[in-house]
């Protein structure tokens, strides 16, 4: 049975923000809650990637997440860290070996300004 080594080090507490959809004039709009359920994850960052487009500097922070499998984690969710940084799930969470035990996915946060 596959067991990722990162699952032994779930030290980072994050809040899982699952969006709710409301319809406004027939168009579904995503609404994120201000507070979510706390989950523990293994958080591996890869530093920020800096780019300049049309004179605007932006930095993209990415991280690889490993945690226990949860069916409510999807590519439209967000993770809120204790320091107030909000990361978006950018890849569909991978259910390791289809065993419904572990999942891995990537998150990113875009920041910057003029």
What labels would you give this structure?
114 residues, 60% strand, two-stranded antiparallel sheet, mainly beta
| Rg (C-alpha, Å) | 16 Å
- Helix percentage range: under 10%
**Distance between the amino and carboxyl termini:** 50 Å
Put simply, the count of helices is 0
Q: Indicate the overall shape.
A: globular
Largest sheet: 6 strands, antiparallel, barrel
Mean pLDDT: 91
How much of the sequence lies in strands comes to over 45%
**Uncertain spans, ≥5 residues at pLDDT below 50?**
none
Record the strand order, biggest sheet.
Answer: 1-4-5-9-7-6
Structural class: mainly beta
Order of helices and strands: EEEEEEEEE
Number of strands: 9
Explained architecture:
The protein has 114 residues and is mainly β. It has strands spanning 12-17, 20-24, 27-31, 37-53, 56-68, 78-81, 86-89, 94-95, 102-113. The protein contains no helices and 9 strands. The model has no long low-confidence stretch (mean pLDDT 91). The strands form 2 sheets. A 6-stranded antiparallel barrel has the order 1-4-5-9-7-6.
